[in-house]
Amino acid sequence: MKKAIIALSLLGSIFSFAQEKTNNQATKEKQIEGVTITKTKKAVEQKADRTIFDFSEQPQLNNGNVLEGIKKLPGLVSTDIAGMMYQGKVLDVYLNGRPLNITSNELNSFLEGMPANSVDRIEVITQPGAEFPATSGGAIMNIITNKNANKYLTATYSGNYSFTNYDKFRSRTSNSLNLNARNKIFGWQLNVGQNYRESMLNSNQDNLMLSNTDRVGRGYFAKSGLTFDLGQDRLLLNYDIYHNNNDNYTASNGLADLPYYLNPNIIREGNFSSFDAAHTDNVRQEAVVTYQKRFTEKSQKLDFQFGFTKSDSKFIQDNIFTDVVYTNPVENSPRIPFSNKLNNKSDMEIANFKVDYSQPLKILDGGKVSLGGLYEHQNFDTESKGITNLEYTRQTTATYLEFQAKLKKFDFILGTRAENYDISGVTRYYNNKNLIEADLLPFNKFKLFPNASVQYNLMNQVYVAANYNKKINLPSISALNPNNTTFQGPNTQVTGNPNLQPTIFDNYEIKISAFDYAFIGYSVSSAKNQVAQIIRKDGKNLFNEQINISEMKIHNFNVGLPVPFMIFSKPLSEIMKFNFNPDKINFMYIYAGYQKHDIDNLNNKGFWILNLMTQIILPKEIKLTANYSYLTPKAGYFYFTAEKPFNNSVDLTLTKKFMDNRLTVSVFANDIFNGQLMQVRSNPPSGETVMLRTKYDSRNFGLSVNYKIPTKNKLAKEDANILNQTKKDENGGVMQQGQ
Hints:
Blueprint: H1 2-9, H2 13-20, H3 23-39, E1 44-46, E2 50-54, H4 59-62, H5 66-70, E3 76-79, E4 83-86, E5 89-95, E6 98-99, H6 104-112, E7 121-125, E8 139-144, E9 149-150, E10 154-165, E11 169-182, E12 186-205, E13 209-230, E14 233-260, E15 263-294, E16 301-326, E17 331-332, E18 342-361, E19 367-384, E20 387-407, E21 410-431, E22 434-439, E23 443-459, E24 462-473, H7 477-480, E25 492-494, E26 503-514, E27 518-538, E28 541-564, H8 572-577, E29 587-599, E30 607-618, E31 622-631, E32 636-637, E33 640-642, E34 648-658, E35 663-670, E36 678-682, E37 691-696, E38 700-709, E39 718-719, E40 727-728, E41 735-736
Parallel strand pairs: 5-8, 25-28
Antiparallel strand pairs: 1-2, 2-7, 3-4, 4-5, 5-6, 7-8, 9-39, 10-11, 10-38, 11-12, 12-13, 12-37, 13-14, 14-15, 15-16, 16-17, 16-18, 18-19, 19-20, 20-21, 21-22, 21-23, 23-24, 24-26, 26-27, 27-28, 28-29, 29-30, 30-31, 31-34, 32-33, 33-36, 34-35, 35-38, 36-37, 40-41
């Protein structure tokens, strides 16, 4: 690790350093590395197939809600219009190893309802192997919300308070409690929490509609787990529930073509002023039973898992009043409220059963084989004002086989996954006041999804890797949902598309990584039938829709480099003698990425992403962390061109630990210069372009507290995690429950 400082500050010196390294030096480095892992958790870990971000020990990430923390991750782009991407790859979002099956607005609302201090870490799996579902698409973001248990009873409390002060003072609070205990028969864990947030949203849609939304969000969650040790084997029972209950109050005004109040069949231009109230109620429940069979050979594993997920959503919008002044000639309409403007419901049920097996192989210098199978059945129904307008059914059967092997300094992975899909359903809609019923476009196919990777280890913790995989991304239920689940104004229409087709990805990547933090890489994703959002204008009406892009490519170049500040004040001879703890030094982490979306008949320019994170240790062991994020404007992002930077924010966090590190207190200021703003212009394949501008009250200030209540039992020791945490082990293998 002493050598790591030099290699991280000058990535190019790695290669010459590798040639001069002796066996004794390698031994020293391994010894020091072992001590570091034992004493500290790494803020960022680079693996061959993933990047791991630790939330639990980073106050700048775990204050506020999960969405705010995610937006600070280097290389991650999160927008309201096109979802999330990491280093150029579209993300499929998982929670504790299982897909959420939601995107865009519903995903943002879900993540806003989770306190960031309930997250242990986030794994961005950039190269999902054959053991991952082929539906993982370009990459997976796995949000792991649990912390390790302790034997006997222990408890940890986390609390957060922040406020904003734009047009008025607004407060945000979150609290969570994590309880852990074990007796002679079983162990149990319970994690409960709540989140209350007041926020503001201002939007401008092509100067045809301007709105101001006062939002109140309430989130609650409970996660429970039981574990029974049966000899070497283990039985785990988990039940989780998440509840979001949100109210939005929107004042809007603009210009639209509206039905004439004396004769709705006549359309007249008019200036409108409206006030609407919307209510959203989401409940998501998950139950999982896992049996882990273990053998004398520790790397031999057999897991059986059954899971059931149920998610219900309700969205109601009432128009309190609408005033209209018609033009040509000028005429005022009477105030007539459109009560129950929207009344939409959805119900999703997913049941799955999977088997995963792995064992070592005597091949080359050592290896492993993994195989398994999955059966999953999903029902998704939507309703609008009493009419069931979508009945969607998907059945998936899958099996996989993957080999891993070593040969001297090379690591190889070769695998394939076979999946059979049977997707069908019925949609209903009104056409000239007639209710029409039609079958969805069926998707009944059997496909193979190969993956391959080779890694060459230049030296300890320094490697070059090349990867390829083929994936499929099924349209999310929120994109399929024909109902609108966001605010609808007099001249706006927001709809899903129940006939969207799955996306097929071919992903290629080459990457050089060093000492977890430093890397440089290039990747390209070739997508067929990529699902994308378009916003178009027809006259004075705005349409927000989902479509398939027949073919597109996403090119991405990215580099990450940590720079310890001691290289500017100490000679290299002293640095080599310095035995440091990364948590105790001053450094800057620099990330830069370039993305280009290549779409036929669209001249998209690429954009740069810049993230800077600086850690400075102040007197009294107070830690100052500063984050700066910036995305260059005038660039193409799917069917949108950024007129302003998506991200342009500076965040500051001061942290101090007390009471033998049991109490951690942080004060923070996010977006202190109030620069976070989204302003884009749409480039739809048909129809007129639209300018969109949204501004959240992103500048906020607050206090975060984390207190680990001490146990009186001196024999208390760490136990395995039993809350829902289906993670892939560090050496490759199946995403499974904690060992």
